[in-house]
Amino acid sequence: xxxxxxxxxxxxxxxxxxxxxxxxxxxxxxxxxxxxxxxxxxxxxxxxxxxxxxxxxxxxxxxxxxxxxxxxxxxxxxxxxxxxxxxxxxxxxxxxxxxxxxxxxxxxxxxxxxxxxxxxxxxxxxxxxxxxxxxxxxxxxxxxxxxxxxxxxxxxxxxxxxxxxxxxxxxxxxxxxxxxxxxxxxxxxxxxxxxxxxxxxxxxxxxxxxxxxxxxxxxxxxxxxxxxxxxxxxxxxxxxxxxxxxxxxxxxxxxxxxxxxxxxxxxxxxxxxxxxxxxxxxxxxxxxxxxxxxxxxxxxxxxxxxxxxxxxxxxxxxxxxxxxxxxxxxxxxxxxxxxxxxxxxxxxxxxxxxxxxxxxxxxxxxxxxxxxxxxxxxxxxxxxxxxxxxxxxxxxxxxxxxxxxxxxxxxxxxxxxxxxxxxxxxxxxxxxxxxxxxxxxxxxxxxxxxxxxxxxxxxxxxxxxxxxxxxxxxxxxxxxxxxxxxxxxxxxxxxxxxxxxxxxxxxxxxxxxxxxxxxxxxxxxxxxxxxxxxxxxxxxxxxxxxxxxxxxxxxxxxxxxxxxxxxxxxxxxxxxxxxxxxxxxxxxxxxxxxxxxxxxxxxxxxxxxxxxxxxxxxxxxxxxxxxxxxxxxxxxxxxxxxxxxxxxxxxxxxxxxxxxxxxxxxxxxxxxxxxxxxxxxxxxxxxxxxxxxxxxxxxxxxxxxxxxxxxxxxxxxxxxxxxxxxxxxxxxxxxxxxxxxxxxxxxxxxxxxxxxxxxxxxxxxxxxxxxxxxxxxxxxxxxxxxxxxxxxxxxxxxxxxxxxxxxxxxxxxxxxxxxxxxxxxx
Length: 826
Fold this sequence. Notes:
Distance between the termini: 16 Å
Number of helices: 36
Largest sheet: 10 strands, mixed
Shape: globular
Helix content: 40-55%
Strand content: 5-15%
Structural class: alpha/beta
């Protein structure tokens, strides 16, 4: 086999890096894999042949990477996440392997346009937003830093839904991302894992006299792993992302089929495979809750079995060294069931005594908390856990009992200890997964300075007093290869021209751009980069939506998940206010503005979907009013995803980061905008605080309540109607919506939104409205001072290199995982 791998033919067809070798490999894959020649090939055939050609060149590096890891017996980082929003794989892999220019020339010589071929890719929507994108960024950075790491997750058959608008309403369509082929996944059925559910437990005495508990499950599914390659940037390292797909243990009952009951013959297959059918089923129903819990346990159980298999192959059953060779990072609360699962495997399956097993478990897991919202800190009904995972519920009760005993002794405060109970008291107890993660992990980190402090001071205060050494901050980061080099090639070329090589893996070097801040030539080039990006965005908007927008206008952009706390509704009130000012004086000079939205609302989130309807209704009125005359345009881009984001970030002038202070854990969109030269209008929330401190307060438009102000208003008794009464422009906007101005006279459609605002306003939109309008107007005025704005834009890029995912992963490794980089030599 070694002779075959080293033969010239093999190297030429599978690993050759020249244009000629690449062309031959492309034609070879087109012919022998796709079964087509060039005259008969479709654009999709071209994409698949190109993907296989790139995959071939990653393969040698992938196999060599894991062979080297085995030889060095290194400590592994295992990243458990329910979401991975990977984005397009083809351009990332071309860039990371250093073949972008080769592929472009090879395709051109074959009469193809590389960009057109790459646009055929359907990105896997295996995440909902920032959490899943962060996980993908971190895997890429782990590989770039040469860290031995594997990501684990779920291979959803249908990812985040494909969004359409019908009469302004969000409509969800299935996202069948594998329908035209998936060239990047390698199924490994020989590594399948059985995952059990339901049933009961039995207590028994083993032959050696030890007391044992055995789980007798009622049903099971097979977890089939699919491996994806995760290459580092030009360093030969290729790590893995392993995604699990559910498959029935017996997919077809022939006897039932022969009786004529064709539906029941495949009932087991359908029931089992529902587990990985769709990302985040609507959990507003008991069935949805059950399915989501099944998903979480399914991928956690399969992953831990896989992790332990690798460990035992190297170290047998020497479990005490398990934490020295394995670090498991829990990406938010979704994988927390891994803690009782590891205990079950050690105690029940491998006969490890409880104290040793618990010591191993607590030294293995680290927990990242991504939220401060109570609804996102998962709690599961204990009755549901007892039904689905009876043995795990027993383990959770035992963990909780021992923990509360420990807490009472250490804190000498029974009341405080009771507040920390993993299982809530009362007739309908719930399991608090954030508490379970805190008890079962050796590290607990937040994802921005503010959120980490609030985590310690509010959400997990008792735990931070008990174990202050566990708590730390790891501010989020983003992948600069994806969100600067690939998303913004013009800006990247300008930076390369001034800084040379190597800044892409050392983003702190962007600081060197400050040397050119007063250089008129550099300023002009910077402005032309932004303007060219805006022209591209305008053209794509015209082609995709039939909407003409002015590239010379201010591009004021708010793209992110649709949630009330992110306050897209506050932006809606601002747009209505500007519209009303024009209507009052149609001939007044108004600097042209384009407002860009992109967002998906969870299918069961009624208020969020109502906000989408309102934004589209406002767009319909504003965009078609002759008095406005195109000076205001509202664009709501459908089906916002990573590919769309990569087109929008480079074109933005103003970045809207306006969540209520204390609600956004970090944000990563704010980082992507700033790194691409957009200037932020924002609150003191999440990573906005760190962005503002880095770029300079004068280069950030701050407004709004601070976290302590919010608490103060709540203590006083917040009355949102007071702001309605005292603020004429706000009152006018609210009254227009109530009167049906944006809903063809329908006064009822938006009543739930207005009732919530006037009577409750949980996200303080009314209180922050006046300050927000003033801040955006100040930003728009600053934009009209070309030299000032150019300096602000340059400084936002130059001073935000801190937000590289490489920095964040390096901090995780130095402070939590403590593994060593492993160089890969071909």
